[in-house]
Amino acid sequence: MATVNMDRLLQACVTMGGSDIHLTVGRSPVLRIDGRLRSLETKVLGPDDTVALMKSITPDRNQQELQEEGGTDFGFAFGDEARFRVSIFKQKGNTSLVLRLIPTKIMSFDEIGLPEICAALCRRPRGMFLVTGPTGSGKTTTLACMVNYINENFDRHIITVEEPIEYYHSHKKSIINQREVGVDVPSFGEALRRVLRMDPDVILVGELRDLETIESAIRAAETGHLVFSTLHTTSAAGTITRIIDVFPVNQQEQIRIQLSSNLIAVLSQALCPLAAGKGRIAAYEFMVVTPAIANLIRENKTYRIDSSIQTGKRLGMQLLDEHLWQFYDAGKITQEEMLDKSRQPGMLQDKATAKLKTLKSKEKRKAAAKEMEDIGPVFRA
Q: In whole angstroms, what separates CA 187 from the centre of its chain?
């Protein structure tokens, strides 16, 4: 049987609108399309196939890291059509690959449905803006959109620290320098230790992974820089709790004070397949740090943040479940998808059940009115 060609797999992913390619021994290549896995009609991959596919795209440095560490990550360009972020790892002694498609086109705020206030927050001279959500929820795309907005509209020096670099930005109104961990600098911590000497205005940190990186990011925001980064949390309140819990107990009060002064917003997002079956839509939880929310962070009352978000609608704030309900109510996503992504599925289930009862009741009343209309003349006779 013919061998599987990497270029053809990459082209298939681009053409079919896939987001990921999965290559593993004992299975034919699989694409993730609109959040669902779809097998390609090719041969089942053997150990030699995955090794050959790996070697066709992997730099020598990363092949060595794979052998020594059992895994490696890097990014590469597929012609002018797209970039891919690659994760290669060992499993059961075999080589497996996952390639994430990174579109070359950077979307606008309107195209990804970001709240209008995000543009105003990107104009801020200092502070920390966090984009959170599970893996594959579009955090990188959202950050690229914000960085591109600054790049096009303001004269700033933007420095990004990523592992690997995903979206490539060109110099526009701003100067932009992108540093790749493992290529340009050995670690996030080292990059952030040096970044303040580079006269930056805006700093993007690919991910807040550990105490050192979080501490450095907060310090950068505190010293007059606009800092963007990501965390794998699913709510605004949960994000604040996660950051504080990383620090030793004797430092947590100080970190609460620093966060309350320097955090400007948290955007938590989830990607949902459309009910129509083609494409996905992003649902957001959005929190802007107002004086009231800053006070809750300082006083360790993060459990009251959800209430403050609900009363902050004029600033564009909303809870994730509210946005999911709007999409479901408008018929954009299924009830199953809404419940899967929600933080309080029980409440949304009750709401959906009540809506269904109301609809059935309306239908019954309409049917009864129609019946009375049809037999009306008999009663009048």
A: 22
Read off the pLDDT band of 368 (50, 70, 90): low
CA-to-CA distance for 210 and 243, rounded, in angstroms? 9
Number of helices (H) and strands (E) in the chain: give both, helices first.
15, 13
Bridge partner list, 44: none
Structure tokens at 100: 């994430």
Q: What is the pLDDT of residue 374?
A: 63
Reference 247, options 284, 218, 222, 271; nearest CA is 218
305-359 confidence digits (pLDDT tens): 999 999 999 888 999 999 999 999 999 999 999 999 999 999 999 999 988 888 7
DSSP 8-state secondary structure symbol assigned to residue 1:
-
Question: CA nearest 156: which of 172, 174, 144, 178?
Answer: 174
Tokens of 222: 């505190």
Nearest Cα to Cα of residue 215 among 181, 258, 165: 258
Give the pTM. 0.85
User: Which 3 state secondary structure label does DSSP give 364?
Assistant: helix
Task: State pLDDT tens for residues 19-33.
Answer: 999 999 999 999 999
**Per-residue pLDDT tens over the stretch 251-277:** 999 999 999 999 999 999 999 999 987
Amino acid at 216: S
List the alpha helices (DSSP H) in 263-344: 291-298, 305-310, 320-329, 335-341
Q: Would strands 226-231 and 94-103 be described as parallel, antiparallel, or unpaired?
A: unpaired
State residue 215's pLDDT score: 93
| Tokens describing residue 154 | 């303001």
The whole-angstrom separation of Cα 275 and Cα 282 is 13
Structure tokens at 217: 């990011």
The one-letter amino acid at 298: R
Please name the amino acid found at residue 45.
L
